[in-house]
Amino acid sequence: MKTAPPIAPIRVMLVDDHASRAQLVEENLKAAGFEVLSVISSAAGLLYQIEQHRPDVVLIDLQSPDRDVLESLAIVNRHSPTAMVMFAQEDDPDYIRQAVASGVSTYLMEGINPDKVKPVIDVAMAQFKTFQGLREELNSARTQLEDRTVIEKAKGLLMLQKRISENEAHQMLTKLAMNNNQRLRDVAQTVIATLSSFEIRK
Amino acid sequence: MSDPARLPPAEITQLSLGYMRLTDSAPLILAKEEGLFERYGLDVTLHREVSWANMRDKLVVGDLDAAQLLAPLPMTTTFGAGGMRGNLITGLSLGLNGNAITLSNSLWDSLDLHYPGRLPDALQVVRTLGRSLKEKGANPLTFATVHAFSMHTFLLRLWLEAGGIDPDADVRVIVLPPEQMCDSLARGIIDGFCVGEPWSTVAVEQGIGTVAASGFQVWNNAPEKVLAVTEHWHDNYPATHLRLRLAAMAACKLLTQPEQRIRIAKIMSQRHYLDLPEKILLPSLTGDYRFSKNDDPVRVPEFHVFWKYQAGFPWRSHAQWIVQQTSSLLGKAISEDDTRALVQQSYRTGLYREAARCLGEVSPSHDYKEENRHGSPWEFESGITLGADVMIGNPQYSGRG
Questions:
Q1: pLDDT at A167 over 70
Q2: B156 at the A interface (CB within 8 A)?
Q3: Of the residues A81, A98, A104, B241, which has the fewest C-beta atoms closer than 10 A?
């Protein structure tokens, strides 16, 4: 996956306790046009480094205990959001699928492979921007929860009134949403409004 | 003890369970060493994880079947408040309390407070700290916890607020891995931390910190860790999940015996478990706890509560408080309805009751209890005694669901 070359170089920080690998990755990143701000081996000083350099991306090994530190920056320190790319020891497609589905710029692959680093960062950056956008628009997590509550309620009403299974109710909602080109939540709300008024009239 | 042969057969028997390098991993490690998992027909492999983020992600994607998790994580992961999203549930709390707030020696000395041979007055300490921050207006202090959404963070905030210190404005609160706490404290990068044992004891033994409050003193019998699985996993393997909870509960009950606590300290000190000296693990487990290197140990019998006071019950009043704290930490409103939905989704009281029935044990008939109301053990209902539940500084919270 290729994106257009960035106007300003993307600024990367690398956290890797594997010195020779870190060096390879750093060289590769530089060759690919990234600016490597710093390479550190552990979170001792990580917070300070992040606050000083404000990197666009932090590359970190999945097995690093410093992940909680990085995550807290993304969650709580709203002033320094940082895209994170993480690397696992083993290449597990399910893991990657889930990570992507979770909407966080999390990527996992076999070690930090110098050749694969650039495309991964490109994708992570794009994904991070989307995620940030979502967050700014509305707290996406909260919306998800509200959506689920509304959808569950609509399903419950459908099951009750049409005497169908939860699966069938879900399928019915999905089909309605597709046919009307609407979001599942919007359809669910219409269903609730319709069925609830039906109940009152009855 | 119920007869495992009469339980519904396990859907799967080979399980991977995650734990962290913390003293309150004791129930899971004891269940393994004592053959309790085996007794319930389970072949469990324990995996030591390096970060909560890693543990949570592995659980969500199915690399782990179950995990010892921070009490807030089922809700915050279901909510999607950080990192990977996924519906996590718990039917068993793995213990109450277990944390401590530790200050650097220089900060402690500046307060000029002395509690030789007795418990420090946690409220007096933080009020003195609050006054000194206002008078001196020095560089803001930095405190560390181990995860944004942890009881450590919430207890630290509770304690600071009790001293009139605004945790968002007056101090900095950062996250550090537990292993780095002591080093950062010694080097003056942080001024204090709130962590689970044994990390405060490590600081005391190294002579670099003084414990200002045990977790118990901040909120008597606060929730701490839970045994978490994904909702999907539970739906697929309900009988395996039941057996897993029964084995863990049996271990928690064993840990009411003082000799078992001494034994588990020895077991956990081994290289493939916590890899820490036994004498570092013993203080919080035995309750002979040292607050500073030069003082004698003080009795803190409820430093870890694994079984007593219905410790295993996943109270929804605990979960509700946690969601409210998360909301205030994120600066995002979470409506009452959303909170209730999230709490009911994540803390499965029915699963606890199911397991308790199998063991012939009583369990609470209500999901919520009053919090911050009782200064000593009290009778919740006939045959059920709960521990004290007071919060430091008596903040406005009653836990009524």
A1: yes
A2: no
A3: A81
